[in-house]
């Protein structure tokens, strides 16, 4: 099985990037072939219909779509901005859903998130679940949520818990 892990923050010291790495670490320990997608590669102009008519879907988003299509399972790790999904992630999902072969259709997707706040990106994941279902993904029920996040706490997220989380949809 091949696992693609997408994180919705390109911030250098991002907690969600760190969580992406932690999940990748555990996946590899469990023998999964795994690719932690570079968050900077999600960057694209804000979706706009005239831009799409003139230039089509940006090439980096086409690359992302290929990576999603080729993965047997995708983990999306999301920050929380004002109780919802950050624009980097929402824009990448919006653009990728515009492709003729929408890569999310029928894809098994797991969600994770970290925030320094007390909700651990849970509210962002509620919105993300709705968006992913709308683009045709099968979204797993259990999530990894790290509240009051710091780097040390994320590095210690229980490996057995992550391994169980990753088995959803097998
Ligand atoms: C515009 C904005 C809105 C935010 N809203 C929330 C929020 O609703 N809940 C929360 O827990 N943190 C919120 N935060 C704080 C983020 O969780 C924090 O900046 C976090 O570090 C972002 O994720 P990252 O570390 O992966 O970049 C917000 C941050 C920004 C910039």
From TrEMBL:
GO terms for cellular component: cytosol. Residues 1-149 form the NADPH-dependent FMN reductase-like domain. Keywords: Flavoprotein, FMN. One of its GO terms (molecular function) is FMN binding. Its cofactor is FMN. InterPro entries: Flavoprotein-like_sf, FMN_Rdtase-like_dom, NAD(P)H-dep_reductase. It comes from the Bacteria. PANTHER family: CHROMATE REDUCTASE, NAD(P)H-DEPENDENT FMN REDUCTASE LOT6. This is NADPH-dependent oxidoreductase. The lineage of its organism: Bacteria, Pseudomonadati, Pseudomonadota, Gammaproteobacteria, Alteromonadales.
């Amino acid at each position: 099985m091949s696992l693609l892990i997408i994180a919705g923050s390109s911030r250098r010291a991002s907690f969600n990037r760190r969580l992406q790495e932690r999940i990748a670490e555990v996946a590899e320990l469990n023998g999964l072939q795994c690719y932690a997608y570079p968050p900077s590669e999600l960057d694209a102009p804000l979706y706009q219909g005239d831009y799409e008519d003139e230039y089509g879907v940006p090439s980096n988003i086409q690359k992302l779509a290929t990576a999603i299509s080729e993965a047997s399972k995708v983990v999306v790790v999301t920050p929380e901005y004002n109780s919802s999904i950050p624009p980097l992630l929402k824009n990448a999902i919006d653009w990728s859903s515009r492709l003729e072969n929408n890569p999310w259709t029928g894809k098994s997707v797991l969600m994770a998130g970290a925030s320094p706040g007390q909700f651990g990106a849970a509210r962002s994941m509620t919105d993300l679940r709705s968006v992913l279902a709308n683009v045709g993904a099968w979204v797993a029920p259990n999530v990894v949520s790290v509240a009051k996040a710091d780097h040390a706490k994320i590095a210690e997220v229980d490996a057995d818990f992550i391994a169980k989380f990753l088995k959803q949809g097998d």
